[in-house]
Fold these 2 entries.
Entry 1:
Amino acid sequence: MSTTAQTRREWLLSDRPQSRLQAKLGRAYVTWRRFSGNGLALVGLGIIVALVLVAIFADLIAPYSPTIGDLKNARLLPPSATHWFGTDDLGRDIFSRIVHGSRLTLFVVILVAVIAAPIGLLVGTVAGYAGGWIDAVLMRVTDIFLAFPKLILALAFVAALGPGIENAVIAIAITSWPPYARIARAETLTVRNSDYIAAVRLMGASPMRIVLRHIMPLCLSSLIVRVTLDMAGIILTAAGLGFLGLGAQPPLPEWGAMIASGRRFILDQWWVAGMPGIAILVVSLGFNLLGDGLRDALDPRSGEQ
Amino acid sequence: MSVSETRTGAGRRRAPASVYASAALRFLGVVVVTYLGLLAVTFFIGRVIPIDPVLAIVGDRAPASVIAQARKEYGLDLPLYEQFVLYVKNALTGNFGRSVLSTNPVMADIARVFPATIELATLGTIIGAAVGVPLGVLAAVKRGSLVDQIVRVIGLVGYSVPIFWLGLIALLVFYARLGWTEGPGRIGIAYEFTFTPITGFYLLDAVLQRDWGAFRDIFGHIILPAALLGYFSLAYISRMTRSFMLAELSQEYIVAARAKGLSESRIIWLHALRNAAVPLVTVIALSYAGLLEGSVLTETVFAWPGLGLYITNSLQNADMNAVLGGTIVIGSVFIGINLLSDALYRMLDPRTRTR
């Protein structure tokens, strides 16, 4: 058994891979070894995996309904064995609401990443590869959006679009793509004049093919790191919008909105606003730790100097 | 980001005067384009996204004659580009229209509430820099030590905690349970009607009037939100100080200073920190701009009558003129500080001058 493991490891770490697949797996293995050597990064990964699992199995995990409470017997109960995180002013179990709220958090984070990252990637690679006036125009637009205070811009967008979780997602996505464009452009500039791009161009590849097939893949790893690091910020912005009543609307168990509704009871029933805040803190801490770990593993140069 | 980019541009030649002139022109161009962009985005938000901006102003129950009049009054019957020109002209003269909620001109409202925000953000930045810089220096000097770990944790938590939640918890602990500070608001009920503001910065006003009772009360109100904002800028400032100091301490001039036999504290605080201070100025300026933004949520929690609370109140009452006016003012200050810190950096660091 141990000999096969040994050979498998050797196969992965071989400096003369026989196939593309072997090379890819080998690289992934090296990255994973660097990543898993970092204890805090593993903690972050654990938190995020737990978040995903909780979101998937929310119906099984939550002991009570997230929206229907027991107004008669269970208003504002402190944390206990029957209600782990206590209950709110409508008699709803806060633990169940937080469990279901994890779906909304994941929804926001994934959707923002899916919208904003490709926009940034496209703008950045096209600007970097094309150069000239296209580059100048695209980068000026990026700078304008970068110069905006993010939360304020998102606020104004939600004010115009109307409150709601979908509009909050759109507003956050609009404000978060510019850094990705910057990163993608910087990466593109470093590979634009390399020999392999020249070779592809000699073979007659169109600019679009070069950007899509040969430049974008190289930008992905630094983009993934940045997006992961941004996730905490996205969660905090979404929660802030929810807190101001502009994100998810009641009775949705969005964590920021839960804090807003628990605000009235903060002096006597601290758990109503306290528990969702802890949930936000833990999850965004998880994304920050994971992002730091990924950065160190994927790009050892930019880590601790 | 731009900090590390500009740092590498070392050059030995002295630049001729025309280089400065063209650099200044380019800087001016950047300012103009960025402000126009700011106005274009807010114009888009206020005039293009809503289906009918007039309805947003007069309400959907207004008679047709009122709607037609309002449409004319706001220039909404013009083509879109003429509307934009008018919009830019109005914004440049500080005319953001009237607030539906207070019926005052938006600019007058903003002038009334803005000092409260500036006072809060300034005190927050002072706290953040006064604590953050020494912490960052210590973390860099004693790398891997307990201080270093603490700075790391402060940074991590600062980047992960929702500021409005921390504000609520701080109110619960320091105001309700311990009674160390005053509660929400800017000034207590005992002084609210006797205190006359002069500049709008209450701490300064109390000192000017030598009203020490009021000063103590105002200080008790401001210290909690300011400390909270200070914590957020501290998280950023200490982390950046640490990495700047690490970069400086590995330089050869530090070795030379050690070889000369200078004391370690002199090397750290006089030689290394002085060189690290150049990019630090930028970082502190940026964190100040960030606090102006962070004040939106903090002011809501602490019922602090500043621009952030004004914007959120207007938002909740669909007062679009006020929201856009507030957005433009905060955006302008934000852009202004960004550009200013960039210019300051170029002035302070001689290596970035020749291009």
Entry 2:
Amino acid sequence: MLTAKARTTTYTSLPDANGHFGPYGGRFVAETLMQPLEELRLAYERYKNDADFVAEFDHDLKHYVGRPSPLYLAERWTKQLGGAQIYLKREDLNHTGAHKVNNTVGQALLAKRMGKTRIIAETGAGQHGVATATVAARLGLECVVYMGSEDIKRQALNVFRMKLLGATVVPVESGSKTLKDALNEAMRDWVTNVDNTFYIIGTVAGPHPYPMMVRDFQSIIGREARAQILEQAGRLPDALVACVGGGSNAIGLFYPFLEDAAVAIYGVEAAGEGIDTEHHAATLCKGRPGVLHGNRTYLIEDDDGQIIETHSISAGLDYPGVGPEHAWLKDSGRASYVAITDNEAVQAFHDLTRIEGIMPALESSHALAYATKLAPTMKKDQIIIVNLSGRGDKDMHTVAAREGVRV
Amino acid sequence: MSRAHSGQEAHLQEAAVNRITQCFAALRTQKRKALIPFITAGDPNPELTVPLMHAMVSAGANIIELGVPFSDPMADGPVIQRASERALKHHVSLRHVLDRVREFRTRNNATPVVLMGYLNPVEMLGYEAFARAAAASGVDGVLTVDMPPEEAVDLVTALQAHAIAPIFLLAPTSTPERIAKVSALAQGYLYYVSLKGVTGAATLDVEAVGRKLDEIRALTKLPLGVGFGIKDAATAARVAQLADAVIVGSALVQKIEQLEHEPDKIMPEIAALLAGMRRAMDEPSGRPK
């Protein structure tokens, strides 16, 4: 343990006591929510080191989620690309089909400990909504999920799943009718019903302590991957690749590797129709720092500070902000952020499906598409770990519609 | 800090905090309470904003809260959000709002104007540039609803350097420690959010408000305004018995929305609504003993 004086800021020592990652993060909410957020922070600080809580979380991840998820060497795909070896962290094999459930299991256990009887959540692609409705069903808690009406159209299957799980799905008609508006609406619900309600935020954004807490719950991805690659390859990877909307699957993979300076880190944003068009969601690549949804971070905004509607083929990346820790990792140079277009992502979706027999989510397909660019530039004895954050079942309608197929 | 301002600008800045302070001092000697209407600048169109401000003053408003439109008004209910959306259709930005205040000041140099909005447009302009421009336009106070005192030191410093009052919210969830922390940074008045919820939510429990105001008064000497849930003259009168200021927002904005397509009726109807509240607040029975 370093003394306070000797300790310089390391990548894993953030956030500070007020939730800041350098200039980013913090707590930018109306006064009504300040005390509830402080109570949440205190509860989280208490339980994250509580042996019973940790044991219950680990138990649920193992027996309910199905962890550890495999780390799979994609041999045929690696051979075709002709460069670095590509390992896939198979978060798509988790219960409910994506990494989101790691976090909802953790927050729901915390909600139970705090005596809350009602769970609310926002969702974009619907994966976080499904993961929340799932844990709420299991714990017998009331569950309300806010979802942009535009996303409801794009993700009808997930809406049906949430309803089957007993959740109430509330369509949000304001603004761009997508994830950011669902987040606004969930925050309004929370401020009104704060006494009995726990708000499960699905990504590493929002006011402190959410970015830290969600990161901690998702870090299981990177901790497993680190141990698995050491076991399978006998060494650390040369590069990590993950898609970034809000950035929870990415930070989950990256965080346990942040102090390994030799491991290059790439976050992949949605370039939509191209980052030089007006139709993208590449916040870190093209945005500017500002304040939205309770934290300071990069935003896609106009010169008046109004938030601009974003575009991506994948609802889960269609968000004008990004987790504050990613903003900090970008500025500090520890991670690089790149962007992949809709077309490139769909191509990667088809490639992985045909070459490896794995259908990835369109979100994860952005990470895969970047790996197809990166791998050929690297040597054959080098290693890339790609976070396969979710499976593609939910995207069948989107892919079919894009290709003129009626299913 | 450079003090290279023109004489007139320096005069306006000098007047800024004083306009709010003088307003409350004058009302106190008259044993009356402040009536503070809120409208969103540019709603339903930019041309109506300044005439509406003058009409509200004539109807008995003592301070005007002018909403700065924002694309993601997280702490507001649907009524105020739609007002923002109507104003944003006309591209009413923070700069335009400052222009409206400057225009208002050409005919009224006495009524305090407080900007109320979200932090991001201010961040985009820059704290110092914003504070300078706001002071030059004749703004007296600034309330950024998503900026609690913990994050506010830099903006408060910039505002105070230009004699603009930083105004903060207090809520039913505010602990004594938080009330003390907020009071230490705030100037002008404190805005007590009388409900857990967003603007335009249910009607309020006046007795619970009274208990909380007593708790706040023990910790600060600043005037206390109460907002959220004040929909009619009767509620305004009851709140006026407890607080130093009655803040009315959604009830006015809802009226503007109803008359969106008959804009000629907006000024007289808003004036009538406020005049009714003013009368009820000034009734002898409404005065504190």
